[in-house]
Amino acid sequence: MRLAHIWLLAAVAALALKLFTYEYYLADDPTCGIAARLRPSMVSHQLLHRGDLVLLSDENRFLGAWLYEAMVNWGYLAVIAAGPICWYARKQRGSPSI
């Protein structure tokens, strides 16, 4: 049961990261970073909207940008798919359910 709760928490966090944050850039400045938005969207890289909360900002490229990009591009799908795959593998082995 504990593994299912951990997976569910990770899946919700990964999906929230994808839907409610984005990597922003400015049209006339090399500054970029991560901003939070109120309405969910699948767009992960866009101009900074007025009123959005800036979570992280750097003049060139913020530390861990590659990790954020991987998570919002395909990583959230891997986290979501990992739960059912692990559950199926444990069922095939004859282990007790999660």
The helix-and-strand class reads: alpha+beta
Summarize the main sheet: 4 strands, mixed
Q: Using the CA coordinates, give the radius of gyration.
A: 17 Å
Q: Which ranges are low-confidence, i.e. pLDDT below 50, for 5 or more consecutive residues? A: none
Order of the strands making up the biggest sheet: 3-1-2-4
Shape: elongated
Count the beta strands: 4
Average pLDDT confidence is 88
Element-by-element helix/strand order: HEEEEH
The percentage helix is 40-55%
Task: Give me the number of helical elements.
Answer: 2
Instruction: Tell me the fraction of residues in β-strands, as a range.
Output: 15-25%
The CA-CA distance between the termini, in Å, is: 5 Å
Commentary on this structure:
The chain has 98 residues and is an alpha+beta fold. It is built from 2 helices and 4 strands. It has a 4-stranded mixed sheet with strand order 3-1-2-4. Helix 1 runs antiparallel to helix 2 (65-93). The model has no long low-confidence stretch (mean pLDDT 88).
How are the elements arranged and paired?
Blueprint lengths: L1 H19 E6 L2 E8 L8 E3 L5 E6 L6 H29 L5
Parallel strand pairs: 1-3
Antiparallel strand pairs: 1-2, 2-4
Helix pairs in contact: 1-2
Structure summarized in a few sentences:
The chain has 98 residues and is an alpha+beta fold. It is 49% helix and 23% strand. Strand 1 and strand 2 (29-36) form a beta hairpin.
